[in-house]
Amino acid sequence: MVNVLDYVPHPTIELWTWPHILFIVLTILVLGASLTLITIFVKKENTLLWIYRISGIVLFVTIVVNHIDVIRFDVEIEKDVVMVFGKETPYTWWMVALPFTICSFASFVIPFGCFMKKDNFIVHSLYPIAIMGGIVNIFIPNYLGNQGFFEIRTWTGLLHHILSMWIVLLMLLKGFIKPSMKKIYQLPIALLIILALGLIELQAFHYAEAMAIETDLSGFMWYHMDLGLILADFIFTFIMEKFVYKKTLKEIFNFKKETINGDQSY
Fold first, then answer.
1. How far is residue 106's CA from residue 124's CA, in Å, rounded to a whole number?
2. 184-233 pLDDT, tens per residue?
3. Any idea where the domains of the chain sit in the sequence?
4. Cα separation of 9 and 21, whole Å?
5. Measured between alpha carbons, how far is residue 159 from residues 60, 177, 253 in Å?
6. What is the DSSP string of the chain?
7. Per residue in 123-147, pLDDT tens?
């Protein structure tokens, strides 16, 4: 079995050392400043649409480049992937075409939602994943311990998580995404689609790392994460409808209506 660490260019990034803390501080400052400035000064709907679209294109290019470099590295070192049926198979280039983590799935698909109507299924169903993935990536990017500081896969990995979160946060702030109990079912549907893709990668292509289905993260499995996301989305949606949209409980849980404060919900 190949020892991946033997192939890692140094220096790598250790969590909660001064470079990581500096990265956290700078990231939060840039995110906060950019979102605040756009929220205050960009009022025209058409300008916002172009910001979403250009950001979506940058995100798509970033995740594609990240995928290519990640697979390049794994193919280069002939890293083994444990098969479902107890055998092993090396990484191959066809894996570039398929997202193999929940976050990469969101980063691949959200750009298409940037070109669609307000509150479309793509951005509404994936925004909790993008936000959670971005937060985890900022504070606990565990994969960086096995990657060189100046590698392409390092910076594109950081960037695609942060950019996907930035896009959906801006959409939430500007009303392109409107959390609603009437659409609370969309996240579970997206998670089922991701699970189905993971099972295809796992069973048909023998990709053992697919969507973390076979991964034990300190005792947490994929379904723990999914349930946590669904619960967090429910709480966030309730808070938004109750305290931001100023709706009553009857209005929040009245699934027959399709309006928010008198305006049509997209």
1. 11
2. 999 999 999 999 999 988 877 777 778 988 777 767 788 899 999 999 99
3. 4-264
4. 21
5. 11, 22, 37
6. ---GGGGPPSPB--TTSHHHHHHHHHHHHHHHHHHHHHHHH---HHHHHHHHHHHHHHHHHHHHHHHHHHHHHHHHTT-EEE-TTS-EEE--GGGGGS--SHHHHHHHHHHHHTTS-TT-HHHHHHHHHHHHHHHHHHH--GGGGGSBTT-HHHHHHHHHHHHHHHHHHHHHHTTSS---GGGTTHHHHHHHHHHHHHHHHHHTS--TTGGGTT--BTTB-HHHHHHHHHHHHHHHHHHIIIIIS---HHHHT-TT--EETTEEP-
7. 999 999 999 999 999 999 877 767 7
